[in-house]
Amino acid sequence: MKKILLIILVFITLISQAQSSKWSDLFSYNNVKVIREDGNRLIAATENGIFYYYPGTGEIKKLSKANGLHEVKISAFDYNATSQTGIIGYENGFMDVITPNGIFLIVDIPISSNINKRINHISINGDKAIISTGYGVSIFNISKREFGDTAFFSIGTTYEAVNSAVIKDNIVYVATNKGIKFHEINATFALYSEWNLASNIIETDINAEFTKIDAINTIAFAKKIKIDANTFYFQVKYRTGNSFSTINKQFVDVQDVRVTDTQIIVTDKSQVYIYGTNGIQQKTFDAGENINTALIYNNGLFTGTQISGIYNEQKNSLKPDGPFNNTSYKLSLLNNQIWVSTGARSEYDTSIPKRVGYYHFDGNSWIYPDLFKQDTSIYYNVLDVVPNPSDPTEVFFVNYYTFPQYHSFKGIYKMSNDNFVKSYDIPSANIYQNRPIGCVFDSGNNLICTVTMIDGGLGTGYYYLDRATDKLIMKNLNVSNGAQKPLVKDGVLYIPIPRITGLIMYDYNNTISNTSDDKFKVLTNQNNIPEGGVVSTAIDKNDDLWIGTAIGLRVLSNPKSAILEDNPQTDNIIIEENGLGEELFRDAEILQITVDSGNQKWVSVDGGGVFYMSSNGDKTIYHFTKSNSPLPNDSVTDIQIDEKTGKVYFATIDGIMVYQGDVTEVTSNFGNVLVYPNPVVYAQYKGNVRIRGLAQKTNIRITDAAGNLVHSAVANGGYFEWNLNNKRGVRVASGIYYVLMTNEDGTDTATAKIAVVN
């Protein structure tokens, strides 16, 4: 990564914070963790953002990293309607404080990196917020936006997590797995040894874990009581005055306890129970699915579900439209539709959901196929999903797993209108053999899918679909035992081989069913492919093959002809740094390479974000990371471009982010030329002016109103940026400026006006 950072310092045209108007999210807002009220609206906190629901109008607005938040993976939230202040807590220990004056990032308390900093719960009381974490509890001063006293619940090197906490009468009560503890807010608050165990609360329940606590006039809490290693139930107790009482019910799995002036609201797995502060049950609600929280608003019950957003009492699903889940791996775009796979190459990665499948945006709304809902005991690991270009209602996806105990069978599945049609099961002697990886349609509309570990040996190859018999035909190339998603162009199939050095270039001569005239070559370290395997490939507008490896980037010119050469050599891209040559992306794993219509390259680096580069790679135009942009993760597993709109889609394990790029369909002539922002008001915007819709090569002259030339340039790739400086490098004066443009051979022209207000 040091090498990458050096490149950034010298070559990058870095924007410290990308314009929020150019970003949008495709996050899931299904899993509502917390609901709070704010006048005429409800605020719901989900995994990657919050949304506002206005019951009076039905309007829904969302707030995420795309338009103001600083992180993803929300783990806690609270809101004070009086001060109009909300606090979001994240799994990494950071917080966002939302105020009428802006959103402010609060970094975690600086402690050892191996300590669990996750924020488990937030409770606002006036100008104070009690922050429950994986290492203890903190008092946060809201007006100053700074931490006050922190009690580290530690004995030696072991820290005790606080599940939730609340202030009542200047005393902080915390719920932990070892009891309810309390301490007055005073000079000894930070001393863990001074915290008292409320023995009158836990009584003799030495096997109880305390999970939730809340208080106004009444204090109530939930505790998990273990009967044996596999059996437990929940109990809710409350105190009014000086005595504690127990609600007369054994709960299944309490997710939340909320106290109002007159009620106690218990959210229990899929049921909501509402009690008076005297413990008498007033109402129940069966959500019919797992839920996280509930709230009474204007005498109506609203429930935060795990897969349907907010439910009202009529079980109407209230949420922004989005995919079923945030996990994403590979994307397919076609005709304003999006398909998202959610798998991962390692079956041992427990951080990734195993039963998700794929999701589909049909141009109007997101669809989660019934196949993945019907039997959640089935293990799916969908590495890829691709639509048929000639009939997008027909879709194929690959399942990478075979786990008979989970009723999961690796294979290639056919869907029609998101309904299951058939599975092309792949027979093998054991669960590890003949694993499908990724698919592609070639120009003849043939479905071709890579397969690895054929019969357990040196078995990288491919399947193709024989439409006449509706069967898969396998071709074993007897090379290596790994594969990635393939690339195909002009009858040549490119199969990256991860982990083991190699790239297969297989020329099937545009006759996939006839192998008699086929030929192929495997690029290895003898062809200047570095050790560690090939991860990604792309072919650009010049028919150069860009090869992303585990430790660098290579380029091969005219790859189809190279198949016939004895020893073709790939090239490093060398850039100049402080007068010395430096290899571009040396030692970096290249997860994805995508070429836009203007031949610029989007390159994803594992742990390093995304680079947007000039056509030959000698200049970095943008570098987007989790820190300087709304990207949710610095490891982007796929990049896809909608050339009609210029939108660039980034897939990560934490969700999909979309960037409005400057390059749309680029030809030798002009498209729909657009200047933005326009007018350019310095008090509102201090960046460059962008012009898109240009020809592949455009000659540009910019003049003032009197016809004096102030700037000239040649733009390649379909767009241009002007920093509003004249030929002397001085910012131009306020006024109207004319942009005169011609394409490379002068057969097409375009003009535009730019208004500048300094």
TrEMBL record:
Record keyword Signal present: yes
One protein family per Pfam: PorZ_N_b_propeller
Domain of life (superkingdom): Bacteria
Residue stretches making up the PorZ N-terminal beta-propeller domain: 44-195
Gene3D superfamilies linked: 2.60.40.4070, YVTN repeat-like/Quinoprotein amine dehydrogenase (2.130.10.10)
Keywords assigned: Signal
InterPro entries registered for this protein in UniProt: PorZ_N, WD40/YVTN_repeat-like_dom_sf
Signal peptide extent: 1-18
Keyword flag Signal: yes
Official protein name in the record: PorZ N-terminal beta-propeller domain-containing protein
Organism: Epilithonimonas hungarica
